[in-house]
Amino acid sequence: MVKEGKSTAMPKLRFPEFWNGPEWSEAKLEDLISTITPPAKLQSSSYLTAGRFPIVDQSQEHISGWTDDPEAVIRNSLPVIVFGDHTCVLKLVRQPFAQGADGIKILKAKTSISTDYLFHSLNHRPLVMEDYKRHFSTLKERRVFFPDIKLGEQQKIADCLTSLDEVIAAQGRFVAALKTHKRGLMQQLFPREGETLPLFRFPEFQGGTEWEERKLDELAKRGSGHTPSKTKTEFYNGGIKWVSLADSRRLDSGYISETSIEISEEGIVNSSAVLHAAGSVVLSRDAGIGKSAIMKGPMAVSQHFIVWTCDVKLLSNWFLYYLFQIMKPLLESVASGSTIKTIGLPFFAGLSVLIPPLAEQQRIADCLCSLDSQITTESKKLDALKHLVIQNSRILPERQNHGGCVHGALHADPDRLGAGFAVAFAPKKATQ
Questions:
Q1: How far apart are the C-alpha atoms of 366 and 360, rounded to whole Å?
Q2: What is the rounded CA–CA span in Å between residue 164 and residue 420?
Q3: Helix runs in 221-274, H state only
Q4: pLDDT, tens digit, for every residue of 89-106?
Q5: Does the pLDDT of residue 154 top 70, yes or no?
Q6: What pLDDT sits at residue 309?
Q7: Closest Cα to residue 395, out of 116, 9, 11?
């Protein structure tokens, strides 16, 4: 057994070839790095959109701009870590670059620790931004754990986490490309302002009639909602899903199936709230203006929303959902109010929309639904990869105070932990 309170510096997971390796060392960050003074600091007004050398500053983007000035470029001591003194952003930079503006620290690892390993170690527990102040004085006090650089364990850990970062970046670019493709496709599938035909029509509808302008109230039944008295506990928690401002994050994702608050049948009877049918389209008219969704089941809404129940012979609910998505700029422009902007009910009473025949509506909706499904699938893969990084952070230790037994081998699925890991990992036992 480990003695109670015994402190160790070991990772929870370790590559098999290092199972019996020595305990890791510990040091303050300031003892492991030197800082690099750039030859120049470029002001944001001088950033180019293209150029010979990238500019790195403390913004979220890895590259913030470009310059053609060779005198401003840092060429030696690469790779380096760039730390945003105000924003706490960490960047690993391998290529010659210029520093943008002020507010960053350029860190170079000393000989006892590799720059790649140190970058991942700092990212394992990133510093949290506290207002807009300088944070390097806090960061340099950070305790860093590291194995002997001569044994190769640092490099193996860095290679593993770097490969995961590269996969995540590639998956992120793929998701972003799909979203960009969807935005471009929607602009072609719906007519531009002042036109009655879209730029693209599916082959079976080419040469068909122009889209028809109709009052939306002629195609769907419009309704709204209400908030039952909050002083009456019996009006709530009765199993009826109720869309409120608390559900803004659930909108713009196709179906809405859950709500933060539920009301009761008694709450509906004793207020102006209405139970809308499954398949109805809900639209936010103030906070989160223009955000929409399709009700997966019967739901009520607060007064902050408008609901349309489509006439199935005239209007596809999914077509209306995507129509609202592309109408967001218009919806945002008509909102008014000094404190909270809102869209007045008269706007919706007079709202007209352009629609094609029902079969073409459904074809457009099916196309966009299929693309949304792919975006959702790929986004889940991206989330899973990010979770994988959290799992793999167990190869980076934190000081642990043990008060019990250290048990046997920890088994893990290599498909979840990354190609660099073996199937089983044995945590190194602390000194008995």
A1: 10
A2: 10
A3: 265-269
A4: 999 999 999 999 878 999
A5: yes
A6: 98
A7: 11
Cα end-to-end span (Å), the chain: 6
Torsion (CA) 64, 69, 71, 76 in degrees, nearest 10: 50
| Long-range contact pairs involving 16-22 (C-beta distance under 8 Å, separation at least 24) | 16/422, 16/424, 16/425, 16/426, 18/147, 18/151, 18/153, 18/156, 19/426, 19/428, 20/428, 21/147, 21/148, 21/151, 21/153, 21/428, 22/147, 22/148
> Which residues are bridge partners to 307 per DSSP?
223, 282
Contact (Cβ atoms closer than 8 angstroms) between residue 317 and residue 294 = yes
**d(C-alpha 212, C-alpha 235), whole Å:** 43
Cβ contacts of 208-214, under 8 Å, gap ≥ 24: 208/356, 208/357, 208/360, 209/356, 209/357, 211/354, 211/355, 211/356, 212/354, 212/355, 212/356, 213/352, 213/353, 213/354, 214/352, 214/353, 214/355
Query: What is the token pair recorded at 159?
Result: 């290679």
Find, among 268, 221, 282, the residue nearest to 240 by Cα: 268
Phi, psi at 380, each rounded to 5°: -65, -35
**pTM for this entry:** 0.74
Phi-psi category of residue 252: left, alpha or beta, with phi > 0 → left and psi -120 to 50 → alpha: left
Helix residue ranges per DSSP H, 111-212:
115-124, 136-139, 153-189
In order of 122, 173, 305, 335, the CA distances from 384 in angstroms are: 22, 15, 34, 38
What are the backbone angles phi and psi of residue 67, rounded to the nearest 5°? -145, 155
Least reliable range by pLDDT among 13-27, 46-60, 272-286, 382-396? 382-396
- H-run or E-run covering 307: strand 305-310
Which among 212-216, 412-416, 428-432 has the top mean pLDDT?
Answer: 212-216
CA nearest 366: which of 222, 196, 204?
Answer: 204
Q: Both tokens of residue 432?
A: 């008995």
DSSP string, 103-140: -EEEEEE-TTS-HHHHHHHHHHSPPPP-SSS--HHHHT
**What pLDDT score does 221 carry?**
97
| 379 token code pair | 């986004």
DSSP helix, strand, coil percent of the chain (3-state; round to 5)? 35, 20, 45
Identity of the residue numbered 428: K
